[in-house]
Design brief:
Structural class: alpha/beta
Strand order of the largest sheet: 6-7-10-5-11
Mean pLDDT: 80
Distance between the termini: 91 Å
Shape: elongated
Number of strands: 14
Strand content: 5-15%
Amino acid sequence: DPALGVSYIKSLGLPPGAPAIPGGAGSQPAAALGQLTRLLGQEDAPAAVIVTHPDLRFSAPSQGSVLLHKLAAGAALARLPQEEQAGGAEPGGGEQAPPTLLQNMAIYVYFGDSGIPDHFFRTDPEAKLLRIPLPDLEQRQRYLQHIGTRFFGTESPDPSRLALQTEGWMLRKLEQLADLSQREKAGASDFQALEKLYTVGRRVDRWAQVDVANATIVIAKRNRVRGQKEVISEVLDMVATAKYRMAEMIDPDSRKPPLLLFFVGPTGVGKNLLIRELTMALGFGPDQVKILDMSEYRQDHSDQKLIGAPPGYVGFDDGGQLTNHVQEHGFCAVNIDEIEKAHERIHDIWLPVTDGARLTDGKGRTVDFSDACLIFTSNIGSDTVADIPKLPTGEFKRQDVVNHFLDKVAEYFNDDLERPELFNRLKRGMVVFNFIKKSDALDVVKTRLDNLVQATNAKAREIGLPEAEIVFDPKGGEEEKLAHLLLSLVDYQKYGLRDVNTMLEKFVTPRLALEFLEEKELKGKVRMRWDVNNNRITIEKA
């Protein structure tokens, strides 16, 4: 480090002609490391060498990396011929100098784990990793008191409040934020805008541009999520509060993702479908939406897939699926599907994300979630729906359904997982989905049956059956009768509308394939009827 001075380095016994600063102007890596070798191997005076120069941060398989590896290992190092020449030794002839035994200490300073050669951890028993912690709350507060006058404006920022908002920050970042405040002529009262400009280089708040009215129209017009009118209304209310970041108005010191949703309810009722419709309506592109299936995170070490492996482990350079996605896009959505299937250790990840809007990944980076939309889904409570009282019609009262699932989710997080703090963070976004009603299920059967018939007719024309066509008699109500018969095969209250697809694939598509598309000589119009004797669909001429 140049701050140590030439005299300090020379006092350790370096020859007068040696480079004073390892890695300085005009020097070669091997030469610099040769001087370090002599320091680490000397016996007359103890030595500790601190290497901070970026020129000495090698990556394999360079010659410098090999030398650095041997230095850090604390093993015997034989000087290479190239190093002898670069270090001023007499080249050629004679015997090679004996290896120097390294017995002193070398400290290598890296700003972030990503710069540390992974072989330090894999093969060097003497290499130890010492993490320097980030400044704590008190340290940040003292530093902000020191640099408060450097922020733009006549009033200095409140150090206590700003310290709370800058958890995970280095002091250098606080200083740079103060400089940015002067350049942008924005005081500490505009902290959120300053931080956004600092972290992502963007002055525009993407959430402020969300068109809630248009999203409402788009979802209603597409009408793909059936039987969830109350749910859609609740979700759009939360979108409006996210647009204006109302949570920060309640508590200016809080940091949370603007939109956090927790979808819970029976299986197959449209939770994931609503996520697709909502993210599309809010303007998220396909690459901005990340789906994390929690059934893939059942092991205790699965958190490495989300935030990245620690230094020295396989996959360290790849980073984490969650942190990489948010780091790359900023304004994005993450669907944490079926959270209850993940290992309980995974749940610790959501604590700093849901309250703090930040997460430290395996590389030591602090990833900002203040523009991310987090949507959790769960089927908790679905296995005990028999406990919910039914109305005389056989359906459920909405408030009874809401109370049941809220109680089961609270029981799961508070009693089973013993994570009441996580439940307290998630419950603000909890939305309970309805069971599917018979009228909605019948509409879906009609719609999907009609789509299937149209697609099959198009396939017939494509494969050379231009005159073949499936029709329904509009006067005879054939389609209505068939839809009611097919609906009787669907357990929509237990399995939701997903069971409609299962029923169509099992009872309808095989007949369309074998008795319609495979009949190469088929001409004219045909109808689908229900064969009572064989309990299946059959194809007959119209």
